[in-house]
Amino acid sequence: VQLQASGGGLVQPGGSLRLSCAASRSISSLDAVGWYRQFPGKLLRELVAHITSGGSTLYDDSVKGRFTISGDNAKNTVYLQMNSLKPEDTGVYYCAADRDIVAVTTGDGVDYWGKGTLVTVSS
User: Fold this and answer.
1) What is the pLDDT of residues 39-92, one digit of tens each?
2) Which residues make beta-bridge pairs with 92?
3) How many CB atoms lie within 10 A of CB 77?
């Protein structure tokens, strides 16, 4: 499965962006698809949110109430709607997918990663 992330850009604090993760084939066969972010100057990627094939979602505490992850099986695409953006949300966002939800939750052993898309929140 190839993943293509898009939708990043420059936005002012309080603004919104929608990221898209388009898969080369059906995402319904995958246990989970998630979004990770890598902060500037950091090597570690941190889980932002993931969604399972059953529609369950998980969010990092820092984005609860501001970000929403959703999937469109017909388009093989997972979205991350980001509202009320803060400067500390700045980073490179990656989508990840696997048949193992644990892998997507931990980031360890993930089978499929997309290339990152840069989100910059600045006035």
Assistant:
1) 999 999 999 999 998 999 999 999 999 999 999 989 999 999 999 999 999 999
2) 38, 118
3) 19
Q: Are 84 and 14 in contact (CB under 8 A)?
A: yes
Write the single-letter amino acid at 38.
Answer: Q
Q: pLDDT at position 30, please? A: 84
Please answer whether residues 47 and 108 qualify as being in contact, where contact means their C-beta atoms are separated by less than 8 angstroms: no
* Residue 122 CA: distances (Å) to CA of 13, 27, 86, 105, 119: 6, 33, 8, 29, 10
Residue 28 has pLDDT above 80, yes or no: no
Tokens of 13: 């604090």
